[in-house]
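=== Structural record ===
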Amino acid sequence: MASLHLPTLWVSTLTAATIFIIAVTSKWLRRPRSFNVPIVGDGAADINTLKSRYVQEADALLREGYEKFKDAIFQVVTPDGPRLFLPRKFAQDLKDYSRHEASGMKALADRHIGHYTTIDHESDIMLGAIKIDLNRNLGTFVGDVEHEVAYCFETQFPACDDWTPVDLHDKLLRIVAQASARIFVGYPMCRNEEWLDCSTKFAIDVMTGGEKLKQWHPYLRPIAQYFIPEMTQIRGDHQRALELLLPELNKRLAEPANPDASPHNDMIQWMQDRSQKTGDRSFDNKELANLQMLTATAAIHTTRLAIIHALYDLAARPEYVEPLRNEVLEVTRDGKGVLLKQHLTQMKMLDSFMKESQRHSPPSVATYQRKAMIPITLSNGFHIPAGTIVQCNTNILDEAPADWGNPHAFDGFRFYKLRNRSSDDVNKFQFASPTYDSMQFGFGKDACPGRFFASNQIKIILAYILSHYDIKFEDGVVGRPKNFMFEVNVLADPTKMVLFKKIR
């Protein structure tokens, strides 16, 4: 009987010994790279204090670097090692490099160790489907997306006949996921509960698994990944996505024989069409499912967070609700209940409010980031070796142009007023416009390709809320709740509830 337990005992002992050896060796091998530039907080006695500050208050740390070094390059100590931060002006040096020379996607993938979390997968088919097909078809989807948004509010939201607290982080996750899926996988797949769960869970597994795996030295990650549950779940997410998509893909495969079948216009079809045109033999059903997961990850969570920030700003500043609501109702009056592309374009006050909200609460305090794929020399002679990630310190409000007015005040109609200055400005200062002074979507050749899609999704959902609900913070909340920081990421306080009440 004892002999039956011997293999189990040996396995347990070997596993424990392996974990111990990996942990000890990981500490021993960790040798962070450094650069010959000043370190913010260099006077701290304990390097772990600097790492902790970066995780919990990167905004304050970068502000300190700006005030101390102004136009100079500096580095910050992080749990991943030293990280280079450039003054905004050097974005001009980098903006004309292609993604094969200075890549925003590779920088993001490295932050989440994408080689292991599977997001380091830059596909020309995916980028073409987003940059060209998605942007070209955005106008045709406005009504369909609004229909899905309305369906979600009717089926997922509480009745809100009286003031009702709503967990925006949870509810908006579902609404944004389903609204995005309407374009990514089409109807009725966009309402498939398992698909929506899989596409939202994948991003969480990537972020959580990546943070855990980053605690190990790169030499040890090939082994360490198998001790992290989320890393196993990532592989399961991909497999489940393929299983869920296969019935839809097989149904479409059989449709050419059916003369009554309607043509498809969604991300699935665009990717398939592109693979056929390019003759890419590596593109199969498995690759399609993988790209769907990556596209959903890029679209859902940042869009949801931008909407939450905007709603927090609205609840904290109720004086904006009536003029924004009046604008939505006025521009949609000719639509006979159907939201159209031109309606979104005409919502200039809402666009301005969204941009001002994002200026104060961006997705990151260093939204311009690039991984040098080739050696790059900046205009001041500073050399960036290939493989180095650099970020621009982009959330210093003091750097706003003087004609924008008080940079620290929240002025929801700041950009609406700037657009109305002259005929030359009418198409400037838009939410989705990346410029030197507004880098929330990046800057230059490798700016975010999905920014127009994100702008439409945010505007459709906010317009729906303004048309159907009054909102306010729960009792006891004074002013706009302070954001939380996780490294450079700017997060809305999840402990605060917004109350909704349906308009009669």
About this structure: The mean pLDDT is 91. The first strand starts at residue 74 and ends at 78.
